[in-house]
Amino acid sequence: xxxxxxxxxxxxxxxxxxxxxxxxxxxxxxxxxxxxxxxxxxxxxxxxxxxxxxxxxxxxxxxxxxxxxxxxxxxxxxxxxxxxxxxxxxxxxxxxxxxxxxxxxxxxxxxxxxxxxxxxxxxxxxxxxxxxxxxxxxxxxxxxxxxxxxxxxxxxxxxxxxxxxxxxxxxxxxxxxxxxxxxxxxxxxxxxxxxxxxxxxxxxxxxxxxxxxxxxxxxxxxxxxxxxxxxxxxxxxxxxxxxxxxxxxxxxxxxxxxxxxxxxxxxxxxxxxxxxxxxxxxxxxxxxxxxxxxxxxxxxxxxxxxxxxxxxxxxxxxxxxxxxxxxxxxxxxxxxxxxxxxxxxxxxxxxxxxxxxxxxxxxxxxxxxxxxxxxxxxxxxxxxxxxxxxxxxxxxxxxxxxxxxxxxxxxxxxxxxxxxxxxxxxxxxxxxxxxxxxxxxxxxxxxxxxxxxxxxxxxxxxxxxxxxxxxxxxxxxxxxxxxxxxxxxxxxxxxxxxxxxxxxxxxxxxxxxxxxxxxxxxxxxxxxxxxxxxxxxxxxxxxxxxxxxxxxxxxxxxxxxxxxxxxxxxxxxxxxxxxxxxxxxxxxxxxxxxxxxxxxxxxxxxxxxxxxxxxxxxxxxxxxxx
Length: 626
Ligand code: F6R
Hints:
Radius of gyration: 26 Å
Bound molecules: fructose -6-phosphate
Low-confidence stretches: none
Mean pLDDT: 92
């Protein structure tokens, strides 16, 4: 998704902006640009803004800027992922006012953009792009200069003009603006789209993600909705919607920048897959009290409130939705509460049956996915309790939920979710155990035993990483040139299959589908020609025999069968062409371990097909707009 950086201080602005934009590359983007203030030349003259934009990678922008001098010490930059308008230079940010004196970068979406654009055009503003963002530049220009004919007074002040423009906009924005008439000033606003600001020794910084600031400062302010910041080389002033000064909350960032580097791995995706044993351990630290009961201090709901819950909805998108499918099995098995899993993009436009005893569990790695947030808000209005599972501390999902479990995956850089998925399953497993405990369906002894086995999955994942890479490689060779692949399983295995197919599609661009294995004979089996890859979750479970009999149907049609089986199962070799093993594990936890070889398989196929596994085409790390 789009990224914002801004800097004002004593360093060369273009260098600071490029290094910040590079840190944001992981989010996915299709164009990049900067606005740099150029001081008056020796012969006098006003400060002006130098706008440089490029379609493609930040490296292209960097080469272009290499020809510019180093004099500018204030500027804003952006990586854009196209929403309103195609990925072109004209649509890349920053966008400027008619006279080019004001430039803005913006993340989010302006819902009333069409009306605002028509209104501004009727007053003579000329638009140079198809974007919604450009209305901000023109609105700020009007508020700065004034438009007596439209009853708009002149503020003559960038911060006040930004504040006035925001009152006209319906939608979400993280915004940074500069004005040639106020050298060294960056005005920043936020509503429903993340913005962080920080002071370093050599100036003031703004970004849409703390990772872009961390080289300069570890003490940052995450702006709240409706808060504004005015950055100058000397400091940062914070204000509210009325312009009243406010005292911000400073957050200290204690994670290491090394976490954001590849650490010797060829790509972030592999690095993050290999971090999963740690994610399991970290997500479980401190969750079991000395008396053997689950302890989730950020729960936000009393045990009495939890006991009243009689229906659970898990709402999420993409990979997070698949974590929900796994949770459904656990919640229904352990707490005996009906649990439905819905894509947030569907849930928010339906009229689901929600009562005060409904628990809505919102799962989101980024904590800022637009559909998931909208679904949370809707559910709360309808009276549900909302529980968030997210990887990002202080994210909108965390803030807008009654309680939260953080997945402790740490920053996930590769666009495809891997380690955060495992963190989500572990967190959802904790929630299912808790509901089972509170509802009296699980004894303290059972909870303790299951918790211990859950923790054992860390070592089991490590075993897979240490011993099954060669088997995954062989299986990948069997898939890489296929036109398509089918993932099948039953029960937990079906849920894992959906994620396996998504991962393969998104990183290797190989078409894949997933089916509950029992559904094969009702249609998908028609796909199977000799050599067609069928990836089956055939781990030890109550439905193992059923899965094997489904595989026999595939074998009879000549499928190339890749089985995920439990270590020690030699019989499966009679039917499967390739076998990848996971250690013996209770069926309830096999999603955690069996997902790992499927992640490795997707990556391996993608690498063999020459794909950029960290930044798949057409995808962004988080989808903060519809
Ligand atoms: C796939 C992937 C996406 C996300 C989805 C939801 O690898 O990463 O499918 O899972 O966009 O994102 P979050 O979890 O941030 O709400």
